[in-house]
Amino acid sequence: MKYLILIQSNPTSLAHWETLTDAEKEQFGAAHFALTDALLDSGHLITSQGLAPVETAKQVTVRDGAIVATDGPFPEVKEHLAGFYLVECADLEEAVGIAARVPDAAFNHVEVRPVFDRSMLDG
């Protein structure tokens, strides 16, 4: 089964980031690369990506057939998606174990969510 591991950014995690030295920031990034390599080697990783800053985002809606795209930043947003890992696991317990290895889990929450699959509709 596929699971999406969501890495959030929020004022607490950003404040923690600012306390890190340059060397610690480099180690943090290296830890993400190491986890990615380990998950590739174990066959769990489908894909993973970090996301560009929220200021580069667009919010898109369709109103009366017209596309409306609004530029960021979005001041009302205190928490936003910073990156993700899409993994293949035997069960939720295995996915939670992988999520615990994400460097961000040491100072922020990391969300694990099963990916909806059309086969779940077969009954």
Give your account of this protein's structure.
It is a single chain. With 123 residues, the protein is α+β, with helices and mostly antiparallel strands. The protein has helices at residues 11-19, 22-42, 92-99; strands at 2-9, 45-50, 58-63, 66-71, 80-88, 110-114. It has a 4-stranded antiparallel sheet with strand order 2-5-1-6. The chain is flat. The model has no long low-confidence stretch (mean pLDDT 92).
Distance between the termini: 17 Å
Strand order in the sheet with the most strands: 2-5-1-6
> Overall mean pLDDT score?
92
Major sheet description: 4 strands, antiparallel
Number of strands: 6
Strand portion: 25-35%
Radius of gyration: 17 Å
Short descriptors:
123 residues; alpha+beta; four-stranded antiparallel beta sheet; 3 helices; flat
Topology at a glance:
Elements: E1 2-9, H1 11-19, H2 22-42, E2 45-50, E3 58-63, E4 66-71, E5 80-88, H3 92-99, E6 110-114
Antiparallel strand pairs: 1-5, 1-6, 2-5, 3-4
Structure summarized in a few sentences:
By secondary structure, this protein is α+β, with helices and mostly antiparallel strands. It is built from 3 helices and 6 strands. The strands form 2 sheets. It has a 4-stranded antiparallel beta sheet with strand order 2-5-1-6. A two-stranded antiparallel ribbon has the order 3-4.
